[in-house]
């Protein structure tokens, strides 16, 4: 849809620092009074995302937008080729804006995020999923499809294209992607949920969007039209709803959000790659065995491991489900030293995980694995399995 971009991209401009500071304070005042804050995001919140330090690529920029001066459609319209390298969605690290939003959500200040983005960075940053329960549906070509799992697999490790068409572990449906291509309708439930929040919102902050794509742009438009609600827009270019906003910030979303968080006295958290891992001791193949699986926060299976190996065992397991057969039944107190190899999008090294078998046969153990791309370090913490109630969805 390069046709939707003008030959000359509208100018991008930035408020002077003092003006930005005053606007950030005004926004903080609005946030402090707000009872139902929603945020609407676009490609502009991802243009500053870099790759992790461990995967070095110089001269990289973030994920390009569509309609900015260096946007995908703008370049296409002008017949230009991009000269700088850009981060891929699998390697990109969430921006300070993404991380600020997670913290506002965790503290109950931010009630809902509506995003047009398909880069997976909101989910990577830790924004919780709002998914309908697993609902196989009959598609027009009469195959069962499933919306639930694809998102996890996409953002956890591997390219979408290699997953589409494989079978969902939850419902046996064929997996499709959740990207809305031009001409495709938005899923009705998601759009309705967003509209409900737009009606309920007393404050909507639109960040990094040209606000030109329908019907998504109806969300900030709805808030802007309501007398009892405030629309705040932060974008480098002008938008069609600037006049209906109560506060218009011309600037980078990271610049605004860093100032806002500082004034709220809420630190922006460091991005950590978070993975949940289940270790199940059982007899999966009729023999004593260890099964290792990745899972998302809501129990949806998640692919993020390439291989698994048990120390002193020559076999490297390379395909899911990762099942390692044992020679004998395990005794309570036995220590299993597992070597986990990840997808490596953040240059993450292998993790050696020591798991002590201390449960009855068939019991599962849950680990939170956290990787800091800045330090290159993994930490593994055993969790109470009750913290993941839907884990049983995938039990054999
Ligand atoms: P858009 O390209 O139309 O507009 C992005 C806007 O962000 C531009 O006006 C640009 O000036 C502004 N911008 C760029 N960097 C900014 C920054 N650091 N701070 C503040 N503003 C900044 O994109 P859109 O409005 O999100 O909608 C177009 C469509 O683009 C959507 O359907 C979306 O799915 C798709 N898209 C998504 C991604 C992504 O997921 N990262 C990337 C490109 C396009």
TrEMBL record:
Does the record bear Repeat in its keywords? Answer: no
Q: Which GO terms describe its molecular function?
A: histone deacetylase activity, NAD-dependent; metal ion binding; NAD+ binding; transcription corepressor activity
Q: Where is the Deacetylase sirtuin-type domain?
A: 17-267
- EC number(s) per entry: 2.3.1.286
Q: Which Pfam families match?
A: SIR2
Write down the InterPro entries for this protein, in alphabetical order: DHS-like_NAD/FAD-binding_dom, NAD-dep_sirtuin_deacylases, Sirtuin, Sirtuin_cat_small_dom_sf, Ssirtuin_cat_dom
Q: Does the keyword Phosphoprotein apply?
A: no
Q: Which GO terms describe its biological process?
A: negative regulation of transcription by RNA polymerase II
Task: Give Gene Ontology CC terms.
Answer: nucleus
User: Which keywords fit this entry according to its UniProt record?
Assistant: Metal-binding, NAD, Transferase, Zinc
Q: Family, per the entry?
A: Belongs to the sirtuin family. Class I subfamily. Belongs to the sirtuin family. Class IV subfamily.
Q: PANTHER family, alphabetically? A: NAD-DEPENDENT PROTEIN DEACYLASE SIRTUIN-5, MITOCHONDRIAL-RELATED, NAD-DEPENDENT PROTEIN DEACYLASE SIRTUIN-6
UniProt protein name: protein acetyllysine N-acetyltransferase
